[in-house]
Write a structure and sequence with these properties.
By secondary structure, this protein is of the alpha/beta class. The chain has a single domain, classed as Rossmann fold. 43% of the residues lie in helices and 15% in strands. Strands 3-2-1-4-5-6-7 form a seven-stranded parallel sheet, sandwiched between helices. The protein starts with 14 loop residues before the first strand and ends in a 7-residue tail after the last strand.
């Protein structure tokens, strides 16, 4: 009898693009992929901040470089990805949240959130897939959505709608590109401590609501995202596509 061998979690020889990778969840994902051996390109809008992040990653012995990119600018994003690719792995962590009661949502806020969270994510995923298809290569494309892509939330009608939309196109793209070996999945975190969530965590009522929902009794840390992203990027998840990983501490269990 021959014992089975665990598929590798290593990413040596793979090129990864991490959008929104200059801080928070995106930065944690970039570091995790680099630790696993990937050559990581980190992108975000702030070129100065990106440079500092990449230098720190290189100082730690990782392969890393920076590209200033705004995913809401579809034409520029597609041109950059076409020029710099193909990328074997995509992690799209670029996102925006503007919370308000649904009755008070402005058209400007709706468009700003949708342009990054939905439209930007759609065309970035397509751009990376196009490079893989043209090169005849397989790949793993990962969009960071949210537990709010599966449930509703207070003052989050626009945010929830954009994240639900990403879950939808993830499934459709996975069906279209599966035969070419391109996998498309999402990771759906609960509330994670990052600079972008400071406002939420400064509100005692919101904290009470969050803690009541998370069954494990604690909020998320960026390190909670690092194992899942390596898993989905690697051969360890070779049969996973068109689905999601909920990293929510049990929020959606009931």
């Amino acid at each position: 009898m021959t014992l089975p061998t665990t598929p590798s979690f290593r990413l040596d020889g793979k090129r990864a693009l991490v959008a929104g990778g200059s801080s928070g969840i995106g930065l944690a994902c970039a570091v995790a992929l680099a630790e696993a051996g990937a050559d990581v390109t980190v992108s975000a809008r702030n070129a100065e901040k990106l440079g500092a992040v990449v230098q720190q990653m290189r100082n730690a012995g990782f392969q890393a470089q920076a590209i200033a990119m705004d995913v809401s600018d579809v034409a520029a994003t597609e041109a950059t990805v076409a020029e710099q690719g193909p990328f074997d792995i995509l992690v799209n962590s670029a996102g925006l949240a503007i919370h308000s009661p649904a009755i008070e949502t402005t058209e400007q806020d709706f468009d700003a959130v949708s342009d990054i969270n939905f439209k930007g994510a759609y065309f970035l995923t397509r751009a990376v897939a196009k490079g893989l298809l043209n090169a005849g290569k397989p790949g793993s494309l990962i969009n960071i959505t949210s537990q709010m892509a599966h449930v509703g939330g207070i003052e989050r009608a626009v945010y929830c709608s954009t994240k639900f939309a990403v879950e939808g196109f993830t499934k459709a793209m996975a069906i279209e590109w599966g035969k070419q070996g391109i996998r498309v999945n999402t990771i759906c975190p609960t509330f994670i401590r990052t600079p972008l969530t400071e406002q939420t965590f400064s509100n005692p009522d919101r904290v009470a609501w969050i803690m009541d929902k998370i069954k494990l009794g604690r909020v998320g840390e960026v390190t909670d995202m690092m194992g899942p992203v390596v898993y989905l990027a690697s051969d360890a998840s070779a049969l996973m596509t068109g689905t999601h990983m909920l990293i929510d501490g049990g929020w959606t269990a009931d």
